[in-house]
Amino acid sequence: MPCLKQPTHFQSLILLQWPLSYLAMFWILQPLLIYLLFTSLWPLPVLYFIWFFLDWKTPEQGGRHSAWVRNWCAWTHLKNYFPITILKTKDLSPKHNYLMGVHPHGILTFGAFCNFCTEATGFSKIFPGITPHLATLSWFFKIPLVREYLMAKGVCSVSQPAIDYLLSHGTGNLVGIVVGGVGEALQSVPNTTTLILQKRKGFVRTALQHGAHLVPTFTFGETEVYEQVLFHKDSWMYKFQSCFRSIFGFYFCIFYGRGFCQGSNGLLPYSLPIITVVGEPLPLPKIEKPSPEVVDKYHALYMDALCKLFDQHKTQYGCSATQKLLFV
User: Fold this and answer.
1) Exposure on the CB side of residue 122, measured as CA atoms within 13 A
2) CB-CB contact of 196 with 215 (8 Å)
3) Is the dihedral of CA 269, 181, 119, 26 positive or negative?
4) pTM surpassing 0.85?
5) N or C: which end of the chain has fewer CB within 10 A?
6) What is the pLDDT of residue 9?
7) Are 266 and 259 within 8 A, CB to CB?
8) Which residue, 83, 59, 25, 71, is CA-closest to 221?
């Protein structure tokens, strides 16, 4: 393992905030809401739950961005730790809508989160007039408080109605989908460039239905910041992971990085550069009911564009000249 800088205690808290914020909302704020129902402060959770149900459809109708949340200084500390950067290869015109493929998933998707859900790397200045949305599991938006936190950062539901809404209301919307999904997270290990994409064609069909431009992206370094323990498909642990996914929608990954002390293992990611390269948009015609042949055609063009994007930048960002993307 290369020599890495030791994070400050403040940086460590910021780095752990991303995964731990969800745990806090699950195990602290949720019970607190219930507890308040039985105290003199009961009107507060009652009013929130009324708002919660009245606002039920908002996550599938464009969400609710908060510039204040996206500009929290915490995200700048997160960016500086690795560091995380974004590279634009072509301008994105605000006159169009875009469906962006995010590759690879990695363990916690630090690159996509920092670049598209915050202003730490200056997304709005790099792509003026473009409103980014990063899609995630739909059931997160059914959880009180969690939904508010996600929507404030521009995260949207990966459901078809939510994506259709964003691509059909106005222009300048950029919807990012981690195409490989949770299955790709389970095979995220350093020095690999295997993407689950060969049979993932739904995002291409959706782009065709709306005439949205497809934007390939690749985040170099995303799979390098954590080690993961992989299990054989016949093992009981792999079966447990599969069962866990069928219940919760994502895999229970066993991963580790660095600890708080030099040379120790822990949950902190390794401080290695993460660079998201945003490729040239691929214009698509608007076809309400695209045939399988048309979908296959543009899916192949997308994969070819992604390969070219990877090949053009791989040696600059830590990959060997002979390394290739592998689609499964």
Assistant:
1) 7
2) no
3) negative
4) yes
5) N
6) 47
7) yes
8) 83
